Amino acid sequence: MSNPLSCGEARELAPEVALGIATAEDRARLLWHVAGCTACRNELAELSALADDLLALAAEHEPPAGFESQVLARIGHKPPRRRWRRTALFAAAVVVAAVVSGGAVYRAQAPDRQLADSVRATLATAHGQYFASGALTDGGGAQRGVMFGYQGNPAWMFITVADPPAGRYAIEVVSHAGVTYPLVDDVDLAATGAWGGIIPIAVHDISMVRVLDADGRPVFVGRPVLR
Amino acid sequence: MQVRTSTVTLSDESLLAGLGSNDPQAAAAFVRRFQGRIFALAFTVLGDRDAARDVAQEAFVRAWQHAAVFDPRRGSVAAWLFTITRNLALDAIRMRRTIPVDPGDLARFHLGTEPGPDTQILTTGERTRLREAVARLPDEQRRCLLLAGLYGLTAREIGELHGVPLGTVKTRIRSAMLKLRSALEVHDE
User: Fold this and answer.
1) What does CATH list as the number for B103-189?
2) pTM for this one?
3) For the segment B12-21, what is each residue's pLDDT rounded down to a tens digit?
4) What is the dihedral of CA B147, B151, B157, B162, to 10 degrees?
5) Which among B8, B82, B83 has a CA at the least distance from the CA of A157?
6) What is the CATH topology of the domain spanning B9-100?
7) Residue B186 near chain A (CB below 8 Å)
8) Which residue of A has its CA nearest to B119?
9) B112–A67 CB contact, under 8 Å
10) Is residue A45 part of a domain?
11) Are A154 and A136 part of one and the same domain?
12) Other Cβ atoms closer than 10 A to B108
């Protein structure tokens, strides 16, 4: 790299690089400098964050009517019909996101290595070890929802159920040893469409997840499969 | 054994991942969470509601297309999305070869006066302090900063626009940035 910058020169240049208006050459020179200079690297990081902040200052304006629907149509979705389902499935998206950590990787058919790295990074954020998931089925064997388990610190579980009958439900897990662990009772799944919480046993110890109706009868069951 | 129910909090990163994995509910949540600010930024830069709508919509499409490559180590989802929006708006401006508004007026007429939601970029308090600090900047510094920060004009282009030497523009930008940073730092202490 010719003409290496002094710290003084680097700091003169940092605002323009942070704002994204520096020439490619100046940007390269600064990045070369900050690679070996902690103080200037911190200065650049602070100014870059400030440049981001400026973009967030614009006054909020309501977009034109239909904006959301138009965006969703462009990416192949219809607007959600009911708010509670949206809430539930947003939550499911958290877990789906955690499992695949950017499923667009699949869409783009990027290398599996990239996906694996992403999953490892996701797990690492909460000291996680692995995921589990499984279908929740009704008495007729039809899938009615999905369960996800996360073995981390703490371990937790999240379930979604589509259009369950109105009523109050309890959720429990049964270990491979046959011990039942109640997770929650008196939850209105018809309103929320989902439940999530910390679980008292390791995910790999779970044999079965059961959703019980108000009379204690299993209405949806599922078995987690480790991922 | 009874356990306490926890509430699942949906972070921007989680919603973005859901958007990228084609979850329609996550996509709707993501759009709803950011649409006001993204449209506002596009409108601030472009000064035209129709153009701002097009740019804002395209920003969400780009976010969907590139969600898998978002790297949280390099910044927040909000900052990433704002940057996409700004760049798209600048492309639109370059197509028109016009600067639609006088950036010297931006602090008064376009920068938000309402507290606004936390965006993971700025808390409500930081947003207020930063907005006030921008408003306190000398006009020439504010103009240079906003032309650079919002419109992406280089120091040379700003100098030519206003007929001032390149070095003067660079000094104004740097002075403005340092004043804004100081305004935020004072309250961090």
Assistant:
1) 1.10.10.10
2) 0.54
3) 888 898 888 8
4) -40
5) B8
6) Rna Polymerase Sigma Factor; Chain: A (1.10.1740)
7) no
8) A56
9) no
10) yes
11) yes
12) 10
